[in-house]
Amino acid sequence: KMDDDDDDIPQLSSQTLAALQEFYLEQQQREDMKTSQGFNQYSIGSIEEDWQLSQFWYSDETASCLAKEAVVAAGEGGRIACVSAPSVYQKLKELDGKDFSVCILEYDRRFSVYGEEFIFYDYNQPLNLPENLLPHSFDIVLADPPYLSEECLEKTAETIKYLTKGKILLCTGAIMEEQAAKHLGVKMCKFIPKHLRNLANEFRCYVNYASGLD
């Protein structure tokens, strides 16, 4: 009889149920925020992290700090490139500055909603870039390579060096300090970036110019 099989149906633990409920509640809150008046398509979290793409968004404070640093470093009328750093791009757009321009180089095509400023980017093909993206045409390049590996950093570094007029702001793990110096000539700053969710690896910022992050 069917009744005899009821015992075989797996039951969710109370912790799993609670976690599920919290997840659905968070989702609902995000949807509510999106449909509420004044929703900003550039706000951090408007596009959710995809951990399979090794995405981890910065906290609002960190994104603000990095965005403001990039604007100052770029100077008036400056051009800023965000390489695999969409939450800083979003914050720059939120600032709505008239005296700088910005583009986002990103593997995740969801960011194509941002129109012409979105450039599809795969670090495995570091120089496979649109023809209109001229070499050394950005006053500062802010990059956050998706993986903590020398191979990923080395390939992203090719892109950074192609794009930048000189200034580089790199965000990656503390364990990458030697490789960051080797491939990009950048030094660790005192500023410690934070993420919306705590990461297992200590994260740091590196620059090759006199920045406001010290």
UniProtKB/TrEMBL annotation:
Q: Where are the transmembrane segments?
A: none
> A GO term (biological process) for this protein?
methylation
- Keyword terms, alphabetized: Cytoplasm, Methyltransferase, Transferase
Task: Quote the subcellular location field of this record.
Answer: Cytoplasm
Matching Pfam families, A to Z?
A: N6-adenineMlase
Which GO molecular function, any one, fits this protein according to its record?
A: nucleic acid binding
Q: Which terms in the GO cellular component ontology are assigned?
A: cytoplasm
Catalytic activity line of the entry: L-lysyl-[protein] + 3 S-adenosyl-L-methionine = N(6),N(6),N(6)-trimethyl-L-lysyl-[protein] + 3 S-adenosyl-L-homocysteine + 3 H(+)
- Which InterPro entries does this chain map to? DNA_methylase_N6_adenine_CS (IPR002052), Efm5/EEF1AKMT1 (IPR019369), Mlase_EEF1AKMT1/ZCCHC4 (IPR041370), SAM-dependent_MTases_sf (IPR029063)
Protein name in the entry = EFMT1 methyltransferase
